[in-house]
Amino acid sequence: MVKFSIMELKDKIKKIAEANYDELIAIRRQLHEYPELSFEETETSKFISQKLTDYSIEHTTGIGGHGIVGLIKGKNPEKKTVALRADMDALPIQEKNNVPYASKNAGVMHACGHDVHTTSLLGAAKILNELKDEFEGTIKLIFQPAEERLPGGASLMIKENVLKNPEVNQIIGQHVLPQLETGKVAFRAGIAMASCDEIYITVKGKGGHGAIPHLAVDPIMIASHMVIALQQIVSRNANPTLPTVLTIGKFIANGSTNIIPDEVYLEGTLRTFDEAWRTIAKEKIVEICNAVAQGFGGTCDITIEHGYPFLKNDESLTTNSIGLAREYLGENNVEEIPARMTAEDFSYYSQLVPACFYRLGTGNKEKGITSAIHTPTFDIDEHALKVGAGLMAWIAINTLK
Q1: Which end of the chain is more exposed for a tag (fewer CB within 10 A), N or C?
Q2: 147 flagged as catalytic
Q3: Catalytic residue among 41, 89, 274, 381
Q4: Which domains does the chain have, with CATH numbers?
């Protein structure tokens, strides 16, 4: 057995990542070509399982649906366990990229970079398995389904004890950030991402002829007032120092030029960083909607689906990971970013064990790779795969110490 110094270990990780680069590209493109929606990741799971088998990494399938958990045991495996997590599901978006690896599944696309996350974790797993004599403890690999849809694959895997047997001491994850150039990463300690709840409202009135509105109860008018009134929750009820977003993103009124419909359908989202205020805000949504509807002679049905909690990055683990990233990539390639109102079900893990969820740069302005996630033209500079795999392996090994 050859024992590497810390500098030699870093160089070894980079060399392995470089040597595996072509394979990383092939894996990512395979995943990108054949995306699968949340809770439908059958073939994706089979593909990941086969790769782990090829790498001689022990693993269990079918956890929380199509989830997979692998174990890489170093020396003294019971000393400590660090988990690495990647999600695997795709989005209901029709891809518009003109590339050889464009999605072959109509209306489904890896537009949020989960193919990158999975590829990076497979790459990190291969590196760590090759270097398992260089660390003490156990690396747990979590390939998670259904991040994009409630209740979230993380919550389902947690219910099936993904953080137990062996018990996870710390967990690390990463997410693509196309606004950040490839070769760079970004971190935030503390609260990093918002909670999210889904709002569904059916406004009920009485339909009629558009020319004789006095004989109808107009649900369009009621819903319009409702959308405006709901904004006072943010502007007049939320503490101004506490970020809160309430957005209505769907408004369906199937009337016509001279037809007032019976119903209007609304959908929206609530995001914030405080659990107590989150509960109060949801109560106020119900109160305001019922009051507005009643005030105009209508009624409404309201469903608020409780979504992901806020994501909290452990201060100590994140600070340590920032230092490790600077050692691996250089001072100028590691940034600290503000909190975001977007949400992630990695937050479930972060509520239970010390966690670090950081951003992987995947953009390249010179190559025209600038599209945002959740768009039909999202793509990445594939050099990010080497960074994603290598850095995750580097952080994991050093976090076990």
Answers
A1: N
A2: yes
A3: 89
A4: 6-193+311-399 (3.40.630.10), 195-305 (3.30.70.360)
